[in-house]
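Hello,

Following up on my earlier ticket. Below are the two sequence lines again, exactly as submitted.
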Amino acid sequence: MRNYTVPICVFMITALSLFTLYSASYVKGPFVESSVFLRQSLWILLGWIAYLFFSRLSYRKFVGFIYPFYGGVIFSLLLVLFVGGVRFGAQRWIKIWWFNFQPSEFAKLAIILILSRYFSRKGFDEVRLNVGNLSFFKGMVVPFLIIAIPFALIVKQPDLGTALLLVFIFLAMAYMAGVKFRYILSVLAMGVFFSPLFWHFLKDYQKDRLMVFLNPDSDPLGAGYTIIQSRIAIGSGRLFGKGWLAGTQGQLNFLPEAHTDFIFGIFSEEAGMLGCILLIGIYFTLIRGAFLASERAEDSLGRFFCFGVGLMLALQVYINISMTMGLSPVVGLPLPLMSYGGSSMLVTFIGLGITQNIIRRG
Amino acid sequence: MRVSKIKIIILALFLILILRLAYLQAVKGNFYYSLSNKNCIRVIPVGGARGKILDHSGEPIADNQISYCISILPIEFRQSKETISKLSALIGKRAEQINKIIKNNLISAFTPIMLEKGVDKRTAFLIEENKLDLPGVIVQVLPARSYPYKGAAAHLLGYLGEIDRWRITRLKDYGYKIKDIIGFGGIEQQMEQVLRSREGGTQIQVDHRGRAVRTLGFRASAAGEDVSLTIDIKIQKIIEDSFAGRKGAAVLMEADTGRIIALVSSPGFYPGAFLDAESSDYIRGILSNSDAPLLNRAVSGQYPFGSVFKIISTVAALEKKKITPEKRFFCPGMLMVGPKQFNCWSRHDSQDLREAIAHSCNVYFYHLALILGADYLSEYALKFGLGRPTGIDLPYEVSGNVPSMLARRMKLRNWYDGDTANFGIGQGDLLVSPVQAVRFMSAIANGGKLVTPYLIERAAGKDSSPKPPIQLGIDRKSLQIAIEGMRQVVNLDTGTANIGGWSGLKVAGKTGTAQVHNKLSHGWFVGFFPYDKPKIVFCFFLENTGPSIHAVILAQQVFNRMKEDNLM
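Thanks for your patience. The regenerated structure is below:
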């Protein structure tokens, strides 16, 4: 039964996603294309296919493909900078036929893969980890250089949320690999030290977002609007929600971006607190499943990879939901498996498919 | 080891999410729920008809007439050149004018902006027929106040106007909002709660751009309720006409009950002007007029009382047994009180109390006042209801002033015998409003009951319950002597109100001429009829028009016309 935890959770979340998206595009507004629901259905279907494929393909077989995949991601990130489509001031995707390919989503997977490969590089048959043996250079500098390229390219897009997510994944995986805690702390401290410098590199809208996070009422019709409306949407759901298709904030388009980053707002307005606790519970079970897989993995590559996937999910769920509730600044991170978006959906399914493969072998 | 630490951190983060969720949805859920409703629910108001104000026979004095007005609903209106020019052709306003009105009056997308009021039926129908070409242009059927008797009883009625800032801060909790129509002064203000209509409207759900998505509900507006007055509008009109624009006031009241039959203040005004944007010149004229036409002199004006007060002096002296009606004083035309000379208006020689009333002899009442003392004069003035509001159901009533030795001494000033003498003939600091005068006179006429004057007979279908009169405990004999004196005022050849022509009118009364520094004096004539069985008390007051004789002539004119019209 344990083997089915992940697919059951994924199934439930994607089902809720479809219900919510149907509701979000029920009363058609200018924002929501009518095809959102159909496209999402298609992506979920493709996702399941990818999931089945990777869960049956032994993960050891594509170890050799990790570096080329990493290279491909960097290439496509470069491509985005030159020919990418612009949306809300950010250049994030390349149009391939009808598919808006978003390389930064794939970068997450690439980083997890390459760091897993790096930290377990002594050979994947070796059971023992290099606990505490990594020097600052090997434990911090080299992996930092590995993520530095995609990080810089993603910051340039700009997509600060994803870029920071990469840093968090890197630090957590280094920590798990046994890098001395003080090394990690020193890197964090450097980051904090230089963060005022970053302020000048931020775009105006990013500064606005940080300012309205501190005080959303400072600009209620501009940058603070989404936060306020999202908070109203969530709060007005109360205990039992307004019912499916009955949420006024979402149905009447008061909440912008309701089908992508702010889908949790719509969901909680219609499902209420009980529904939200259920959803968060499912996410938690899913993440716990990934961590369990990590503990039971037969080699360190699998161990690192499952840990990375669980971490990626946990961070995205936490950051996305806390931003819709006004607990953290608005950054463009989707709610995995819920938000509309093919790249994110596909990447999550692939990651979980590989995890499932590791579970089967473990 | 390290993995479990990260797992604990993640568990903690998820707990934070749940806590925040509980705060937003469970603790503050109702607050956010109401915010979400405010986001998407709008009400398009529909006004109701205000209650009518009727006279005692059910004749409307302030009525409601249906009027059509052309408004636009900003949410549906397209401010294009084409629609504006079409609209301007239909209602006869220039395009710039229309644009200006829209710009100046926009409150919200759902509050209709009135472009033209009082359009005729034909225009209204034309607009309705062209509805498709004129999106957002609506014909509103508005009930509007109309005044079948024009400016009659204007002070009594008060007027309607747009709510002002002071009132809106006080009345917000009662559902008043900006641009609401509210009563100012008079019955309109006093009975606002009854007359006021309950606004209805259509509740609609809108999306984030304010476009209507669906209709949620409709509440019909409810008309306000009528108020019936005790006034006889015909008598009211006769008196107003007789004033012929002179400054002053008049009150007619039932002696036994306090029912007001007419209550006039002059000069008057036209109350309908205050809701008409085109009569702003007229309103400015009223507001800057030194005769203060908006002032209701009958209840909000206070004036020196003059010799009418001698009736109170008489009753006080008789009650306190300081004098008998047969007591005679000699009037040489003046009296020395201390070092000062106090004059009479004529030379009356020797006379008793009744004659002194009839001739309004000052010297007699100087003597009487000095015998009686100022304290008793104050006591009886207060007893007859002077110096405090009568409690009539109109706003802004004044209390007048009754002088007293005590009040004078509290201000560390002396009270002299000369003050007592002056007080006895109603000069000095004494101030009385016409409605106080009529109330005091009713107590003389009805055998010593102090009634509360009232104007409202029925309101919202319920009869008003007048306050029971206060028994003053005054000997009827004292009152009878005062009444006999007042009958002589009219009847005796030398009586101050005998101008001839009183035959057939069984009137008794007392005149008063109150001197005003540097201006013509005020004239009073206060009394009742018929003198043998008093029914109606009256007070006629003319401000700065000279001696009391003018007030007497005015009274006679009024009574004669009432008699002609069978209104006695």
